[in-house]
Amino acid sequence: MSGSEPAPVEDRRDSWEGPVPIPSGANETFWEATLEGELLYQRCEECGTSQLYPRAVCTGCGTTDPPFETSEGVGTVYSYTVCHVPGEPGFSDRTPYAVAAVALEEGPRLLALLDCDPEAVEVGMPLEVTFWQVSEEAAIPVFVPR
């Protein structure tokens, strides 16, 4: 996902058995963009704080409705865990799997599923976003090695 080029969106609606996001309020714009292969984050115009997941207020200064910007969709593994016991319904066929705190180049971090061999994951590993469409309203960001 470089420049204005969207990331791939793979339709997983028929096979996904995990949790499904329900867009509402401050996160509706975020989830709409995922269906188009875009990863959005918020950057406050008042204090410069960047944040993800979407919120109605800036976590830095409390300004309401911080605007969205489009991420390049690249970052690195900040921290991770390998799950050997499924923590959510729909993940039993996936174990073991890796979940990482991904540090985006723009600054914010988000927790995301990694689509790769969990034994290959390491802190600092470069990643890029892809999306799995899991409903008519949302595609979840999933990261793969760059």
UniProtKB/TrEMBL annotation:
Residues of the ChsH2 rubredoxin-like zinc ribbon domain: 31-65
Chain positions covered by the region annotation Disordered: 1-25
Pfam families xrefs: OB_ChsH2_C, zf-ChsH2
Record's protein name: DNA-binding protein
InterPro entries recorded: ChsH2_C, ChsH2_Znr, NA-bd_OB-fold, Thioester_dehydratase-like
Domain of life: Archaea
Domain ChsH2 C-terminal OB-fold: 71-131
